[in-house]
Amino acid sequence: MSPTALIGIVDDDAEFLAALGSLVRSFGCKVECFNSAELLVNRANLLDFACVISDINMPKVNGLELIDILRHEAGELPIILMTGRGASNLEEKAYGCGARGFVTKPFGFEELASSLKEIGVIAE
Predict the structure, then answer these.
(1) Predicted structure pTM score
(2) For residue 16, what are the CA distances in angstroms to 3, 54, 118?
(3) Average pLDDT estimate for 27-54
(4) Residue 37's closest CA among 70, 4, 85?
(5) Residue 64 is assigned to a structural domain of this protein
(6) Spatial strand order in the sheet of 51-55
(7) Rounded to whole angstroms, how far apart are CA atoms 89 and 94?
(8) Cβ contacts of residue 22 below 8 Å, gap of 6+?
(9) Structural domain tally of the chain?
(10) Among 16, 106, 115, 120, which residue carries the largest CB count within 10 Å?
């Protein structure tokens, strides 16, 4: 994957969204941030993205529902889900819905980098 891969980030917390955008840019990626799943889905070309990182717990369309929508709209676009709520089966549910990665907030540089490396978005 190109070091200028475009990553879509979805989170309804504006401060966290800005911080995560900066972190992902530090990996050498381009970033587009969205404060709702609906805004991401309504973007003109979802196939521009190398990956989407989305919060699970959001109003209207949550991260698990977003996976289903993106499967229909963008095929096998890799999705990393994140959550600040530690439900015991949430990680299993996320992977069962098709997530390619899962991180629990707060997470560090290395944890997110590892998830992005696993799906080939950034180099080892």
Answers:
(1) 0.94
(2) 23, 12, 23
(3) 96
(4) 70
(5) yes
(6) 30-34, 6-10, 51-55, 79-83, 101-104
(7) 9
(8) none
(9) 1
(10) 115
